[in-house]
Structures are given as C-alpha cells and as structure tokens.
C-alpha cells in the first residue's frame, strides 16, 4: 500500500478541526450547562426573575442563534442593536456547526479510503497524523489559556475585537437589552474553561492513540521476526 504525505496532512488538519469545532459546540448545544449556573451565580436574586423566566429567555435567544428565524428573549426587553449582535453570533455558531460537519465528513471519507487499501498516511517526522493534530492544537490551546489566565477581561475584549471587527454592538445597555443581565461574564469564562478542558482531553487522546498504535506496531513486528 502506498503512503501519502498529503493524506497525512489532510487527516491531521481534519482531526484538529473536528476536535476544535466540536469543543466549541459543546457549551452551545448543552443547555443544562447554562442552567447549572443559574443558582451558583444567583441570577434570580440579581435580576428579580424566576428560574423559568431566565431559562425561557436563554432558550429563545439560543434557538435563534442556532438557526431559528425569529429573535426573542422571553419576557426581557431587547433592542435592534442587541439583535444585530445576536445575528452576528448566529452566523458564527452556524459556521462552527458547518465546519464540524465538514471535518467529520472528511474524516469519514479518508477513513474509507484507507480501509479500502488504496493509500495510507505517511509518517511525518516519525509520527502519525493523530500525533500532529494533538500537538498542534494542544500548543494553540496552551498559548490561548496562558493569555486568558493573565487577564481574562482583556482576553474577552480581544475575542470580540477579533470575531466582531469594527463593531461595538456587543457592549449592551442592560436597560435596553435585558438579556445581558442573565449572561454574566463568569458564565462565558466557564464556557471557555469547558472548551479548553475538552480540547486538552481530546489532544491528549490523539497523542496517546498515536503513541500506543506505534508501540503496538513495533510489538507485532518483533513477534513476526521471532517466528
């Protein structure tokens, strides 16, 4: 079977992209993760809203950001300026979902290609694509985590400047867009921690998979030589 360096590179990039977009999607699709913050962050006491009102406002906002047509925040007031920000968020969320679907589809197609015996990924500097996907994405995560740990407020502002260039509609007036009162910065910090935790675990699993597979291959080769 022929080996292919381009195949190895595409596999590594696809695996890294699938892991990254999947980690980002986790706090978006897992609504109980937000619900678990309502009590600890004392959102009912701080806003005067009931738990059900908070959940309804969050759910309706997230429904829109995940592809719904109508924008709503339950019983909470919202402005056109605030809605325009959530339209930007909606675009990014859907882009993440699409990138996740494409990367998973690419991995499935490449796995089928390898299984049929037409080609297999070449080793890059003695390591497989899973290793480089884990190392590359892991290094990026460590750098991002280090910068965020130094000054999360500044990192939070930099994030919005990067993904919403030239816009300031993410700076909400609580009197006009009450949804911001149930979305404290502590929640977004915990979302970032969840994403980083998933990425760290995923990168470690990719590296371990490559190292274990390589060791298993050497053991099989050694046994064949003894026979």
Overview of this protein structure:
With 227 residues, this protein is mainly alpha-helical. The chain has one domain. It contains 8 helices and 2 strands; from the N terminus they run βαααααβααα. It has a two-stranded parallel sheet. The two termini are 23 Å apart.
Strand-pairing-aware structural class: mainly alpha
H-E string: EHHHHHEHHH
Query: How many angstroms separate the termini?
Result: 23 Å
Number of helices: 8
Give the radius of gyration: 22 Å
Portion in helices: over 70%
Count of β-strands = 2
Stretches where pLDDT is under 50 for at least 5 consecutive residues are: 217-227
Beta-strand residue fraction:
under 5%
Mean pLDDT: 90
Provide a short characterization of the protein structure:
The protein has 227 residues and is mainly α. It has helices at 5-29, 31-38, 43-47, 51-65, 80-115, 129-150, 152-163, 185-226; strands at residues 2-4, 119-121. The chain has a two-stranded parallel ribbon with strand order 1-2.
């Amino acid at each position: 079977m022929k080996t292919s360096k381009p195949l190895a590179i595409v596999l590594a990039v696809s695996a890294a992209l699938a892991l990254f977009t999947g980690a980002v999607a986790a706090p978006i699709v897992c609504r109980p993760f937000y619900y678990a913050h309502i009590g600890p962050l004392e959102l009912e006491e701080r806003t005067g809203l009931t738990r059900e009102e908070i959940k309804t406002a969050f759910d309706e906002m997230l429904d829109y950001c995940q592809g719904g047509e109508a924008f709503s925040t339950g019983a909470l007031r919202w402005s056109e300026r605030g809605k325009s920000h959530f339209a930007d968020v909606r675009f990014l969320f859907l882009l993440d979902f699409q990138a996740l679907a494409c990367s998973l589809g690419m991995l499935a197609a490449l796995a089928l290609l390898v299984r049929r015996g037409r080609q297999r990924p070449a080793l890059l500097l003695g390591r497989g694509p899973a290793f480089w996907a884990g190392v590359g994405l892991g290094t990026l995560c460590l750098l991002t985590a280090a910068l965020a740990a130094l000054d999360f407020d500044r990192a939070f502002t930099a994030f919005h400047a990067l993904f919403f260039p030239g816009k300031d509609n993410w700076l909400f007036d609580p009197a006009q867009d009450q949804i911001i009162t149930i979305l404290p910065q502590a929640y977004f910090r915990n979302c970032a921690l969840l994403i980083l935790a998933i990425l760290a675990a995923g990168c470690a699993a990719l590296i371990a998979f490559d190292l274990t597979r390589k060791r298993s291959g050497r053991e099989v080769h050694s046994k064949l030589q003894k026979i």
